[in-house]
Amino acid sequence: MNITLIGGGTGTSNVLEGLKRYGELDLSVIVGMMDDGGSNAVIRDEFGILPLSDLRKSIIALSEENENNWIRDLFTYRFSDGNGLKGHTLGNLLMIAMVDIAGSEIEAIGAFKYLFSVRGSILPVTLDDTKLVAEYDDGSKVEGEHLIDEPEVDKSITKFYLSSKVKAYKGAIEKIMESDFIIIGPGDMYTTTLANIIVPGIAQALQETKASLIFIPNLMSKIGQTRGFTQKSMLEMMEGYVGRKFDFVLINNGRLPEDAFRRYKEDGEEVFKDDLSDGGDRVIVRGDLVANSIIQEVKGDTLTRSLVRHEPKKLGDALYKIFRSKWGRFFGKILTFYR
Asked: Fewer beta carbons below 10 Å: N end or C end of the chain?
């Protein structure tokens, strides 16, 4: 069974972690290449290499477990001190070196797949250099993933596009077309999820593929992106960009850790109101998908990260039930679990 994820960041990594336990699944992930914050800014500016963080996270998520997890911990180690090193992960530095040795990002991915015993495909959404651009309801315009991702005040995005002409990586299009299921999310609406969808060729492939589409929304709203949204309005916006309806929507109805929820509320964020109706063209699957522990800050990390995450095993189990229950659209409509 061919399963493809489109996204990036920790959300996509958690889905991969949850699904790789099922050996019969042929997993692939298509990740964005527009990140320009933290270590990625240096990679772009000083080395002229496309952002590597989402590729690195996917490699780790799909790697086979090693004794004591030392290789994994080494690859994800982030320097907290050192002139020129602070904020960088060792994995990003190794990937910079591998791109230089192997000759391209694609060849570097292949090399690390061998080194880390990765089972699955990891594909960039594009190999062209570009930046995200957001226009807002107050008339302002911001260029760059990092600035869009961490605004100083809340405002609504009215237009979202790329700064230059690009084309989707051919391998990503081919993977979409041969998939049985395609999972979009979880991840920040604009800077992670739509950053892939707006690449020319991706939405068209999603419209033409025979694969069933699954949407996993984020757990909480985010300033400058999804404040004031409900599950329905968020889903309809995603479908507007994709150009077709999702077959399944996987929503968390589990309780968030109290301390983390309180901190989100203090920052002005909310859980999305579940105003989706059962029945119709989509299957709405609800379940406890949240990790019970608060994510701890990583030493040396200078970027703002989410405090709560989806729990990989819960995600994997819920998705696998969808895969097993639905080889045709008809069978998907009889889902009764997580009600």
From this structure: C
C-alpha 145/C-alpha 132 separation (Å) is 6
Number of domains in the chain: 1
Q: Across the strands, what pairs with 298?
A: none
Q: What is the pLDDT of residues 197-256, one digit of tens each?
A: 999 999 999 999 999 999 999 999 999 999 999 999 999 999 999 999 999 999 999 988
Q: Is residue 96 part of a domain?
A: yes
CB of 62 within 8 A of CB of 118? yes
Name the one residue in this structure whose structure tokens are 């972690």. 17
Task: Print the domain residue range for 254.
Answer: 2-332
Task: Note whether residue 338 is domain-resident.
Answer: no
If you ran DSSP here, which 8-state letter would residue 103 be given? S
- Read off the DSSP letter of residue 295: P
pLDDT in tens, 26-45: 999 999 988 775 555 555 54
Q: How far apart are CA 95 and CA 75, in angstroms?
A: 10
